[in-house]
Structures are given as structure tokens and as C-alpha cells.
Design goal:
Layout (H helix, E strand, L loop, with lengths): L2 H26 L6 H20 L6 H14 L6 E3 L1 H12 L1 E4 L2 E6 L2 E7 L4 H5 L6 E5 L2 E2 L7 H8 L6 E8 L4 E8 L1 E4 L3 E6 L4 E6 L6 H14 L4 E5 L8 H9 L7 E7 L4 E5 L10 E6 L6 H11 L4 E4 L7 E7 L5 E10 L14 H5 L1 H8 L15 E3 L5 E3 L8 E2 L9 H6 L3 H18 L4 H10 L1 H13 L10 H16 L2 H8 L4 H9 L1
Parallel strand pairs: 11-12, 12-15, 15-16, 16-21
Antiparallel strand pairs: 1-18, 2-9, 3-4, 4-5, 5-6, 5-7, 7-8, 10-11, 13-14, 13-18, 17-18, 19-20
Helix pairs in contact: 1-2, 1-3, 7-8, 8-9, 13-16, 14-16, 16-17
Length: 524
């Protein structure tokens, strides 16, 4: 019997068993069961018992149920998903906006844990750890020359809040080894990467996701910029795949006048909920630009749709992802959960921006590659949406539903098709590790430089480009890097700035050559 044929009856049984799990779930949520359904649940429970007690081989029925629940949910829509018990804590940490640990960015360098930088305000930062420190032991367990996996290292460093992590650290700059005790604590996972002024009048806020802490982070950043006298704002939602709806609504509320519609939701029963602005916004009248791209989804699209339909600001970039479904996270009682689609949302003009998913998950997931092949990422003329999905903004401008938010001002990908690989390469761990090694050779000198002085040093000394070329060639990459020298040097400096300074310095550097920022400058 082939492996596939051997597993098939178990998968079938698992599919039936999943009915028990989901049956319990809907029961908890108040769905009534008929006598017939109750008998079916008893039958399925008995089947699981028989498999566990009588089946000829040992079977992990839990794993079969997990696999089957995933399969069932995939038949509903692309965004109803199962979160296993093993994944649940990590998902919760991301959405909560924090985790418990010692708070460091690190690389495994020559089989040694090297601190890239402590997270600002985190436990390691407070305990005095510095960039470049090597953590040799954690709780008397040797970390170097052990070939430990990343998971093993994380398990040694994480723990309950308030517990102590005893580390032995080597500091290269002083050539000394010392012990340090770090009290584990809440380490913030920032959802607002930066809130900075990019010129005398303009603020810039970058949001990477929508978590529990996003609105408070955004509000603090915006208030700081207002205190610095900004008269216009760029809100960057590129690569933001969404998250919780509520912080997106709160942010949109800060931009809109009272009683303007932010979003509409409709559930299975046809109940419509209309959410309107409160007239308490921090930034209701000043100039606003919202940046989106093909990976801006869900909550990001709620903000972009509200701003566009109310003619409140200018949407700049490329057509967004196209996710107009609302999920609720519901627990299954064993540490796992389902994220189940419970409603559709509509922009203020009434359009659904959910892209079609009737042709299956594979076709749905290949949408981005199809946009690339069609040339849509390089030309707005390649965007094709049905005329039947036309809607109008408050001022009568035509906007489209049926597949994301089409920007008011289109900005193509910066590079030609063949050049995208260079930009992606410069953002990989291969380059990040290399830059860290180079910084280690001259950290004492580099840390004394301003970002501007650092950039001049790297641009003016050919060794930085030549040594990077040699490193990439040794790693098996055969790109003709000389053709792309300007691009490479720009992103090389960006990586140095990121590792040596804070996020604000990094964004000040990277935004200098950002095509969407450059486009906004032409609109003013």
C-alpha cells in the first residue's frame, strides 16, 4: 500500500472528526443543534474513540484533526484560517504588540550569538548590553560552537516576566568577559516604525501592521509631529497586510470630519453596521497623502478607502491587495483557534474591494505574480477593473471596487524588471551579516560618525564596494554589480545606518530616493 493510499482513510476519518471540533465551536457560540445533528456528533465521537483504541497502528488523531480543519477552512475563503496551538502564542504576541524576553536583535556569527543592537528601552538595553557583544553562555548553557538552532536559543533567552536571565558576555571593544543578570520583561513589538519630519512642513509616519498598540503609537507620533509644526502628513501603509480593524478605524477618525463614514460592514444575516467619524480628530483638515502598494491589505485598505471616498486626501502608489473580508478570532478550547470570516466590509461609497476568489486558492494567491506579468506594477494603464464596479466619491470622482484600492496618483516600481533582484538582494540577511562583520572591524571609528559622515566614508572609499562584490561572489552570486553600483551603494549605506543608528536615522536615509516621496514633492 503506498504512503498516499495508507493515509487516505485516516484523512477521511479526520474530516469526520473535524466535525466534532467545529461542532463544539459553534455550540459555544450559541448555534442550536437538531436531534439529528446531536446523533451525528455522538457517532463521530465514537469513531474517534474506536480509532484510538482499536486501529491497528498508533495514530495521532490530533494532527489529523488539525490538518482537516485547515482543509475545511480553505474551502470557505482565502482568509479563514486555523491557528494551531504551537503557533498561537507567537500570533498573539504579534497582535498584542509585545513579547516577554531580554530584547535584542542578534546574528549567529561564526557559531556565536552576536548582539546587533539591544531594542531601545528593553531589558538588555537597561542592563547595559551593547552592539557587538557576544553572549557566550545563557543559564550556564554554552551557546558558542554548539550549532544551536534559533529556536533553541530563543527558548533559553525567553521566560516569564520578572525572571532573571544569567548571561556570560564577551565585549570585543574592551576584550573582557563579564556576567550580567537581565530581568526578562515586556519587549515592545513596534507597529509604527517611525514618525519623523521629512522637511520643514511635512511629517511621515510608517505603520507596518495594526495591533493592539498601533493607535497609541500612531497618536503619540502624530502629536509629536504636530508639536513640531507640520502642516501636511504622509501616512505610509506600504507592505502593511492589516491586522485589527479597530485601530485602523481610530486612525481614519483622526483624519475625517464628524459624521463622515469610515467603513460599513455586513454580516451573514444582512445586518449593516456603519461606523462614522467622531469630530474629535487630531488631523482633520491639513494636507494628507496615503502611500499604498500591492501588499497593502485589509485594515490598510479601510483607511485608504475612507480617505479616498471622502475626498480627504491623496492616495499615492499602486493598486492595493484587495481584501474586503472581516475575520474574528475564536478559540477552540485546546489552545488553538480559528480566524473565521464573519462579515464583509465596504468603503464609504459602498464598494467592496475584495478581489475574486471563486477560481480557487492557487489562482487567488498567484494574483501578485499575474499583476507583475501583466505590467500593472509598471503602468496604470494595465489595471483592468469592470466598468460595472464604478462608484463615486463625495465630490463625484469615479473609483472602482472589485479588487483593491486604485490610487489617485500612480507610482510604478522603481526599477526595471531585471533590477528588482538587486534591491531585494541588498535587503537580505546575506548583506546584513556581511555589514555586521565589517562594522565589527572598525566599530570604534564608525560609531563616532554622524550618518552623513558615515555615508561620505562609504561612498568615497572604493574598498566598501569592492569587498562587497568579493563577498557576494564567494557566496555564489554572479550578478554584474558594476552596472548597479549606485543602487548597491545606496542600500549598502542604508544597512550600515540601520545597524549603527536608530530607525529614524534609517528612514531619513532611505526616503531620500523613495519614488513615492519624490512624486509627492512634485504635487506640492
Amino acid at each position: 500500500m503506498s504512503k498516499k493510499n495508507y493515509l487516505w482513510p485516516l484523512i477521511t476519518m479526520g474530516s469526520l472528526a473535524a466535525g466534532i471540533v467545529l461542532g463544539g465551536f459553534f455550540a459555544k457560540n450559541g448555534a442550536p443543534f437538531s436531534v439529528k445533528e446531536e446523533k451525528g456528533r455522538v457517532k463521530l465521537n465514537k469513531l474517534i474513540d474506536l480509532i484510538e483504541q482499536e486501529y491497528v497502528d498508533n495514530v495521532d488523531t490530533d494532527s489529523i484533526i488539525d490538518m482537516t480543519v485547515n482543509n475545511i477552512l480553505s474551502q470557505l475563503d482565502p482568509h479563514s484560517t486555523y491557528i494551531s496551538k504551537s503557533e498561537f502564542d507567537e500570533v498573539q504576541n504579534v497582535m498584542k504588540g509585545s513579547f516577554v524576553g531580554i530584547g535584542i536583535n542578534y546574528h549567529i556569527l561564526n557559531d556565536t550569538l552576536a548582539v546587533v543592537k539591544p531594542l531601545p528601552g528593553g531589558p538588555s538595553d537597561k542592563a547595559g548590553l551593547k552592539p557587538g557583544d557576544r553572549i557566550l553562555y545563557a543559564e550556564k548553557v554554552q551557546l558558542f560552537n554548539q550549532g544551536l538552532s534559533n529556536d533553541s536559543i530563543v527558548n533559553l533567552l525567553k521566560g516569564n516576566a520578572g525572571t532573571k536571565a544569567l548571561l556570560k558576555v564577551y565585549r570585543k571593544s574592551t576584550n573582557k568577559t563579564f556576567d550580567v543578570e537581565i530581568a526578562r520583561g515586556e519587549v515592545p513589538l513596534k507597529s509604527v516604525d517611525t514618525a519623523i519630519k521629512i522637511d520643514s512642513e511635512t511629517g511621515y509616519i510608517k505603520i507596518n501592521r495594526f495591533s493592539e498598540t498601533t493607535y497609541s503609537e500612531f497618536k503619540n507620533g502624530l502629536q509629536s509631529l504636530l508639536n513640531q509644526g507640520i502642516n501636511e502628513l504622509v501616512l505610509d501603509l506600504r507592505e502593511n497586510g492589516g491586522g485589527y480593524m479597530e485601530p485602523a478605524i481610530q486612525i481614519a477618525d483622526d483624519f475625517l470630519d464628524g459624521n463622515e463614514i469610515i467603513v460599513k460592514t455586513v454580516n451573514k444575516k444582512g445586518n449593516v453596521k456603519i461606523t462614522k467619524a467622531s469630530n474629535k480628530g487630531l488631523f482633520p483638515n491639513k494636507k494628507l497623502y496615503v502611500l499604498i502598494n500591492e501588499n497593502s491589505a485589509s485594515a490598510s485598505e479601510i483607511i485608504a478607502g475612507a480617505i479616498q471616498d471622502n475626498d480627504r486626501g491623496t492616495i499615492v502608489g499602486r493598486r492595493s491587495y484587495g481584501k474586503g473580508l472581516v475575520q474574528r478570532e475564536m478559540y477552540l478550547g485546546d489552545g488553538s483557534a480559528v480566524r473565521l470570516t464573519t462579515a464583509r466590509y465596504y468603503t464609504p461609497s459602498g464598494r467592496s474591494i475584495q478581489k475574486p476568489y471563486n477560481d480557487g486558492l492557487d489562482e487567488y494567491n498567484s494574483d501578485l505574480s499575474n499583476r507583475f506579468k501583466s505590467g500593472e506594477l509598471y503602468s496604470k494603464d494595465s489595471i483592468h477593473l469592470a466598468d460595472s464596479l464604478k462608484f463615486k466619491t463625495i465630490k463625484g470622482r469615479v473609483v472602482f471596487g472589485g479588487g483593491g484600492i486604485v490610487p489617485d496618483v500612480f507610482v510604478p516600481l522603481k526599477n526595471k524588471h531585471g533590477e528588482d533582484a538587486i534591491q531585494l538582494l541588498m535587503k537580505t540577511s546575506l548583506v546584513s551579516y556581511y555589514v555586521f562583520e565589517q562594522i565589527e572591524k572598525e566599530r570604534a571609528v564608525l560609531e563616532k560618525l554622524s550618518p552623513k559622515q558615515l555615508a561620505e566614508r562609504i561612498y568615497n572609499n572604493p574598498k566598501y564596494f569592492n569587498e562587497l562584490k568579493a563577498h557576494l561572489k564567494t557566496s555564489g552570486l554572479t550578478f554584474n554589480l558594476d552596472r548597479h553600483k549606485n543602487n548597491i551603494m545606496f542600500y549598502l549605506v542604508a544597512e550600515y545606518v540601520y545597524q549603527l543608528y536608530d530607525d529614524n536615522a534609517y528612514y531619513h536615509w532611505i526616503l531620500q530616493q523613495d519614488p513615492m516621496i519624490q512624486k509627492i514633492n512634485t504635487l506640492q
